[in-house]
Amino acid sequence: MQELLFLLLPVAALSGWLIARLRPGKPANSKNSCAYEPNYYKGLNFLLNEQPDKAIDVFVQLLEVDSETVETHLALGSLFRKRGEVDRAIRIHQNLIARPSLAQEQRAHALLELGQDYLYAGLHDRAENLFNELVDSSRLQKKALENLREIYQQEKVWDKCLNVVFKLQNLGDGHYSNEISHYYCELAEEARKRSDKKLHQEYIRKAKQAAPDSIRALTMEAGLEVENKNYRKAVSIYERIIEHKPAFIGEVLENLLYCYTQNGVSAELESILKNLYQKTGSSLVLQRLIGHMLQSHNRQQVEDYLLDLLRDASSLQSLQLLIKIEQQRPAAEMQRIFEVIGEALEHELGKRPAYSCQRCGFAAKTLYWQCPGCKGWGTLSPLNEHDRICMPVKDIKKV
Asked: pLDDT digits over 245-273, tens only?
């Protein structure tokens, strides 16, 4: 369908050109008409022989650049870019901009298209210059700013990203609190790598101010409290994260348990882990819980607990842990069977994704704060055990 559209567009453009040349009130130039006629039939011949690229080149040469054909040139250039033929798109848009008779608004659209050509080709400096020109002097400010944001995100220039989204907000174009928070988090990470504690803290504060419930900002704030040995404050932040987004328990579990230990509640760790498992259903919590129980209970009690979990709600993780415990039994035949089943389950669970984008469905084994699929910020969320099992392995996208 797309190929058919691409074939019909030049034909339609050429028809418009012919009508424009023959319209009443415009003197016909028989010399020019005769000069164009051979190329016209040459282009049609290319179409009939299924050589669309050559046909398009011929028809583009036939088009005159005037107020009636600018949109056709822009559409052709855009289609070339979408097909990956960015060199052709650049030539068309550069040819448009070079025309002194081009209206100001038409020139602005051509500049925008040319900037997108350069962006597609990876020529970020040229694209940035064009988009900045549009931001200062055109009604296409929003589109120019959005393209600038894409450039700065690719280049990881987070302070410029912030400047762009602030300008977008001033245009009344929605809210960007989520993006602003992530940009400040990125700046905080950079400050931490430079060992700039003051700036690190300031950026985390601004990230929280932009989005008070941001999981990333809260996690970074809690990590800062751990570094400063404010364990009670860190625990309260981690508990807030779990309350707000239980699926993120895996991202904070180790630090949370460490803080509990530092607060002197090791004796209550089993009840804490049971409570966390009840809230989150996390397999990571269950693993830590069973490991802790094996140190303080006999094997039969742990087996009974896992069997109760299996009766209440079927869980592959519970089954896997139970099999690992049963492997310690002396019956060689049973041990061999359980070992094979356990390895098969472990292999199957290991292939499953751990995170999925709530916007585009991108799935991955590691957490990305910016989705590699749709480029959304904070859209990836940990999958619960059921979703991880149900998602086909072929749907996992690797980066």
From this structure: 888 888 899 999 999 888 877 678 888 88
Q: Report if residue 275 sits inside a domain.
A: no
Helix (H) or strand (E) holding 126: helix 124-137
* Whole-Å CA distances, 362 to 290, 365, 370, 392, 394: 32, 11, 11, 13, 12
Residue 45 maps to a domain: yes
Residues spanned by the domain of 122: 2-155
Q: How many Å apart are CA 384 and CA 218, to the nearest integer?
A: 21
Specify if 147 maps to a domain.
yes
pTM, 2 dp: 0.71
Distance (Å, whole) CA 118 – CA 99: 20
Structurally, how many domains does the chain consist of? 2
Taking the C-alpha atoms of residue 51 and residue 44, their distance in angstroms, rounded to an integer, is 10
CATH number for 43: 1.25.40.10
Domain boundary among 155, 170, 191: 155
> What's the angle, vertex CA 165, arms to CA 161 and CA 171, rounded to 5?
150
Q: Single out the residue of 156, 176, 385, 215 nearest to residue 284, CA to CA.
A: 385
- Tell me the C-alpha distance between 164 and 146, whole Å: 8
First and final CA of the chain: distance in angstroms? Answer: 31
Are 3 and 52 contacting, i.e. CB atoms less than 8 angstroms apart?
yes
Burial class (CB in 10 A: 0-12, 13-18, 19+), 31: exposed
Q: Which of 155, 175, 200 delimits the end of a domain?
A: 155
Q: Structure tokens of 190?
A: 């950079």
- Work out whether strand 363-364 and strand 355-357 pair parallel, antiparallel, or are unpaired: antiparallel
Q: Rounded to an integer, what distance in angstroms lies between the CA atom of residue 317 and that of residue 306?
A: 10
Q: What is the pLDDT of residues 313-369, one digit of tens each?
A: 556 666 666 666 666 665 555 565 466 556 656 766 666 788 999 989 898 988 999
Is 294 inside a domain boundary? no
